[in-house]
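pipeline: protein-struct stage 2 | run 1193 | ATP-binding cassette domain-containing protein
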Amino acid sequence: MAAVELSHITKTYSGGVTAVDDLSLSIEDHQFVVLVGPSGCGKSTTLRLIAGLEEADTGRISIGGRDVTDIAPKDRDIAMVFQNYALYPHMTVYGNLSFGLRLRKMPSLLKRLRHPSQARQIGRDIDERVKRVADLLDIRSLLNRKPRELSGGQRQRVAVGRAIVREPAAFLFDEPLSNLDARLRLTTRAELKRLHQKLRTTTVYVTHDQEEAMTLGDRIIVMLNGKVQQDGPPLELYHRPRNRFVAGFIGMPPMNFIEGHLEATENSPKLSFVESAPSGRKSVGGTGDGLTYPTKGFTLILSRDAAPSGGVPSSWVGRKVIMGIRPEHLSLRPFRADDGSVVSQPLQMRLTLIEPIGSSIDLYLQSAGNDQIVARVDAANGLVSSGPSSPGETSGLTPQLGSLVTVHVDVRRIHLFEPEDTGMNLSLETTPSGQPTTELAHAMA
């Protein structure tokens, strides 16, 4: 078991495509680190660079304090599990598990041919390790089968077992669950997590599935265009995304993004978010050729005073921003703080689609400014509120498709981003270096 260090690694392929761009990472001993991102973000290339299957153009790689940048893959003391399992089809499960050990032990075995008892001891050691790993993975009954006689989940366990039996310094997993069906992915994912808790071997795991990353990793590294967008514990990325890309990538359904601008709030030291409307105008009659009149979307008052001394910084009034709100922070009922006070604001939206998904229901909504918004509500009460839950609330009716519904927005959970696709989260108190982001950090939540 060992720490893994990457220092200023760059990898550019022919044609000028930079897969990894000046990447520096420090993975601690025993950590389970997940590299996640869309196809082409550089995560698999990074894993292959650690394994030695790709050669870095610049930078250094060390495993367990040893510089392995120029060392062959077989001498790096790592074990890799591939997406396609890479089992030897002509060997039994036992043969697949023991092959790597026998290959590594062969020089010692040849030297000891004059001492049969020592050679037999090496064979017994290999046999013991193979059977111990087989018991750990519950594949002891499969040792005499060949890969073609196994299910997808069984083959995956054999591939993992072949890595474990070597007792390497680090495990490298390259999307190992991608070929499994949804149900088997869930069970195998749980098995991998339990396995890491037992072995505590440093693990680097690559996936494009953000749910897989959230459930498996002690730490998640989100990548885009060969660069790290954010690095931290799963819940930190979920609750405090550094930028708009991370916010949209982590979480399912994805965060809702709504274009708008900031305005001063009348008779209040608070800022308001105002949704943009398409072109700012609406046509009468539906033809687009007749009379038009100005329109704008909804308005939300943000929850922290814009300036403790009163007043709104003039530099922020009129600024264009992207508001982000997660589907689970929208509800058909008001959100309440621990003291019972309402901490949400109601908005009228048109219901366009209902998706029941078991314990929850996804509502697809259209806002006043024509933005498409998803709300995830608890299915325990269906879409009908059984009655007023407190004074001042009214009982609800089952909403119909195309009808207007009242949606409550938890204003404590609003994020504001710069308009770019990877625009920074202006709602965070500090940057990664610990410095205040902007004045707007003092104007929210």
